[in-house]
Amino acid sequence: MEKLASAIQIESVPKPAQQVKPMTSDDNVRILGVDEYKQAAQCLAEAFAEDDVAQYFIETGDRDHWSAEDKWDLHASIMDYIVYAHCLKGLVLTAGPNYDCVALWMPPGKNMDDWFTILRSGMWRLNYKLSVEGKKRFFTEFLPLLHDTKQEILGECDDESWYLVYLGTKPTARGRGYGRKVVDFVTHQADAEGRTCYLESSNGINPVIYGKMGFQIRKTIHLTRGNTPIELDIMVREPIKAMSG
Question: Which position among 35, 198, 212, 217 has the lowest Cβ density within 10 Å, counted as fewest Cβ atoms?
């Protein structure tokens, strides 16, 4: 995720979400607008239900008294806010007949740091919904670490790259190639534009999968405020030139 900077101006109201074709039973990739953010967020909530990073901000010592239902509601709310922000400023893709796989991409030169996006998406509510420790982990450790690492790895190409912020498939729909579809949708465009693609992965098996799509590990970083450090692999895909002839 990109760092939520302290923006001082509210950007102009974005254009209305583009028209989206009705959901069909095929496996084609579709671009989602804000009218479908809830379905996309539900997919990611299910996909990341047991993800170490997703739970890092919720399973904190000062929230041990919370019920499993309370924790799930917070987890789902975080996904709601993040997906809505990407509908406003990024690119939200889905594949499968029932929002089975969702990818959140941030296009070159875009971010969700402005106050309009923070307010409209609901991201500001995390200041009140996260616990004291959760806020420290999210705002003072996680976001700055991801922001600084991305700048370090990409350098001058940072603002010119495609950023895969989230990619998740419902447990019931895995193994059908949906993830590949929503990645290829952008990497094909990135190749045509000569742009780099960037992502962070918190799942140990993902580097092999992403490697088959052209991504390579550049660095491993760690979240360290919990009892056990959590690893994130930083992966980059350089543009592939089309074969002539």
Answer: 212
Q: Could you tell me the pTM of the whole model?
A: 0.88
C-alpha pair distances (Å), 106 with each of 23, 103, 129, 228, 229 = 23, 10, 25, 30, 27
Tens of pLDDT, residues 14-56: 333 333 333 333 458 999 999 999 999 999 999 999 999 999 9
How much is the average pLDDT of 146-167?
97
Contact 115, 10 (CB under 8 A): yes
Three-point CA angle 223, 212, 44, nearest 5°: 50
220: β partners = 233
Task: Provide the CA 57 distance to its chain's centre, in angstroms.
Answer: 15
**Distance between CA atoms of 236 and 157, rounded to whole angstroms?**
11
